[in-house]
Amino acid sequence: MQILLLWLLSVACAVNILIRRSDPTSAHILFIFFLLCRCIFFPGVLMVADVVVLIMIYSAATQARIALAVLVILSAVGALAFLWVQHLPRHSWHDIIFFIALLGLIGTTTLAGFARRSQVAQARKFDVTQHLLQQETEENQRGAVVRERTRIARDLHDIVAHTLGVVIAQADGGRYAGRKDPDKALVALDTIADMSRAALTDIRSIVGVLREPADEEELLSPQPVTQDIDSLVARVQKSGFDIAFVQIGPIQTLPAGIGNVLYRICQESVTNAMKHGGPNVAIVIKLEWHETDVTLSVIDNGRGASVANDGKGNGILGMTERAALFGGTLEARARPGGGFIVRATIPYDGNPHERRA
């Protein structure tokens, strides 16, 4: 009967190893139960299946929650101490060396597991940081395209407005002059033709930029807004960074433009905190809903460094321009106790500033 129970316990331990990746929490809890059975039913037997202990310790140190990992390690050490007392009542030098060697194996396995855990966490942080930086770069590129097209639109507006103004004035003058002085009417028509040709040439010289094929589906896709801050926080948390998001006050429905500006300011501030705040930076995002405006604060306890402008319209200057676009303000400064804070306030009725001709 005892042999059958020994085989069942060995098979159960082997199966437990197989499920440790798909369900690590259950696997490590079952491992503690198997250790208890091992100590109760086979206190005086050294089993080949005992090698499972090292595998599960390494697995717990790399995969399980910290509290569960510590519990698994302490259970293994406790089981070893129990077996030492039960199985080796007379402690010779060989026994002591054997016991120390087992403790060394457990300690080495634990250190290796936690080292691997730290390596994986750092890799995840790096991947998320790279992803955010890539998003930031893509956003900068899209912003550069939008700014260039805005410049082209202003140029087209100036050219067309100026030309049409001259054409209308010449047409009105030519109409009246034609009744008394046909030669002046012809001069007016020549002026209209010359101005129109010049305008057509200018328009052709700058409109080519707009002929580049664009991803229409991407341009028409909805832009992220304040509701998407939760997703941003979840991605950063998954990478191992300490980040929290709180909202204060009754949540309001924002226009898409204001929501997108707040999201972009939040994204850029979080990215800067991750880049410049150090590996142990803690970030807090606060969204405060007031009666007439909304305030976004991104606070970190890092080194307090930030980039005012990276040469691409990014950084504090870019965030300030985004907030000002909807009548808002932005404050960015180092905190007295260490760290950095970015705070943007935008009124609910903020309208984009219109350019006048």
From TrEMBL:
Give the EC number(s) under which this enzyme is classified: 2.7.13.3
At the top of the EC hierarchy, this enzyme's class is transferase
Keyword flag Phosphoprotein: yes
What are the Histidine kinase/HSP90-like ATPase domain coordinates in residue numbering? Answer: 257-350
Q: Which SUPFAM superfamilies match?
A: ATPase domain of HSP90 chaperone/DNA topoisomerase II/histidine kinase (SSF55874)
Top-level lineage group = Bacteria
Reaction(s) the record says it catalyses: ATP + protein L-histidine = ADP + protein N-phospho-L-histidine
Give the protein name, as stated in the record: histidine kinase
